[in-house]
Design goal:
Layout (H helix, E strand, L loop, with lengths): L24 E5 L3 H6 L5 H22 L3 E8 L7 H25 L1 E6 L7 H14 L5 E9 L1 H17 L10 H5 L12 E4 L18 E4 L9 H13 L17
Parallel strand pairs: 1-2, 1-5, 2-4, 3-4, 5-6
C-alpha cells in the first residue's frame, strides 16, 4: 500500500475541491532555475539542483489535491543548444534524480513514465528512466511523466513519420488518418489531454511543450522561479482552474448576456 507524502512544513492542507473541478492532467514547465541561481551569485546549475525539491513537493501536492497525471518538462529538444557544461550537468542531474528519488516516489504510489526521443540521450539516463518505469509500473496514485529530450513539434513529426510508414506499408489507409488515430502514435498515447498548463518564473509561453495534448489546456503562469515553487502554488493554480469556464469552442447564453 502506498504511504501518503509528508504534509507541507507550513501545515497548510490541500483545498477541498470537488473531483469534477480538479484537473486530471497538469503539465509543468519548470522555468527560472538559471535566473534564480544568477540572482544569488550562483552558477545556473545550482538553480537546477535547487529545483529538485520543488518537483517532489509539487508531486506530493498533486497526490493530496487529487491530480492524476503530472508531466514535467525536464529537458527539451532545444536544450541541446545550451553550453556543453550545462548540458552535461542536466544529463547527469536527470539521471541522478531518478536514481535518488525513485524509491521515495514508489513508496508514494507514483508511476514514473518517460516521453522523449532516444537519439542523443545518454544511455545512462535512458537506463534510469527505464528502471524507474519498471519499478513503478503497477502504481496508480499519480503518473509522473518525465519529459526528457522532448519537444512538442518533434513528437508530432515522429508520429507523422510513423503513420507515413504504416500508410506506405499498406497497413493504414490515408483516409483513415484522423485525430483519434494520430494520437495513438504520440510518445505516450494513453496520456489524457492536459487540463492545466502551469509555468513558473513569469514567462507566458508554452515553449513547445505538449502542444498536441494542451490544445485546450487552461494556462496559469506563476511569477516565482521554479526553485521557489512548492505544492501550495499548485493548489492555488488548481483553485484558479476550478473557477474557469471551459467551453471547448461551445457557448451557452446566460440570462442578460449574449454569446459572441
Amino acid at each position: 500500500m502506498p504511504v501518503p507524502p509528508p504534509p507541507h512544513p507550513s501545515g497548510e492542507r490541500a483545498p477541498a475541491i470537488p473531483k469534477e473541478f480538479v484537473p486530471r492532467h497538469v503539465a509543468v514547465v519548470m522555468d527560472g532555475n538559471g535566473r534564480w541561481a544568477n540572482a544569488r551569485g550562483l552558477p545556473r546549475t545550482a538553480g537546477h539542483a535547487a529545483g529538485e525539491a520543488s518537483l517532489l513537493d509539487v508531486v506530493a501536492g498533486a497526490i493530496e489535491v487529487g491530480v492524476e497525471y503530472v508531466s514535467a518538462y525536464a529537458f527539451s529538444t532545444e536544450n541541446w543548444s545550451r553550453s556543453p557544461d550545462e548540458v552535461r550537468f542536466l544529463m547527469g542531474f536527470n539521471r541522478d534524480v531518478l536514481r535518488r528519488r525513485r524509491d521515495l516516489m514508489n513508496s508514494w504510489g507514483v508511476r514514473v513514465r518517460w516521453a522523449g526521443r532516444r537519439p542523443r540521450l545518454w544511455r545512462s539516463v535512458i537506463a534510469e528512466l527505464e528502471t524507474a518505469e519498471e519499478l513503478t509500473r503497477q502504481n496508480s496514485t499519480v503518473t509522473l511523466t518525465m519529459c526528457v529530450n522532448y519537444g512538442g513539434r518533434a513528437e508530432i513529426a515522429d508520429a507523422a513519420q510513423a503513420i507515413a510508414r504504416e500508410v506506405a506499408a499498406g497497413r493504414v489507409k490515408p483516409e483513415k488518418v484522423n485525430e483519434k488515430l494520430f494520437a495513438r502514435y504520440l510518445d505516450e498515447p494513453d496520456l489524457p489531454d492536459v487540463d492545466l498548463f502551469l509555468r513558473s518564473s513569469g514567462e507566458q509561453r508554452t515553449s513547445n511543450f505538449m502542444i498536441w495534448q494542451a490544445a485546450y489546456a487552461e494556462l496559469v503562469f506563476l511569477d516565482e522561479p521554479w526553485p521557489d515553487v512548492d505544492r501550495r502554488h499548485l493548489w492555488r493554480a488548481v483553485e484558479t482552474y476550478a473557477q474557469r469556464d471551459r467551453r471547448y469552442g461551445g457557448a451557452v447564453d446566460k440570462p442578460g448576456q449574449t454569446s459572441a
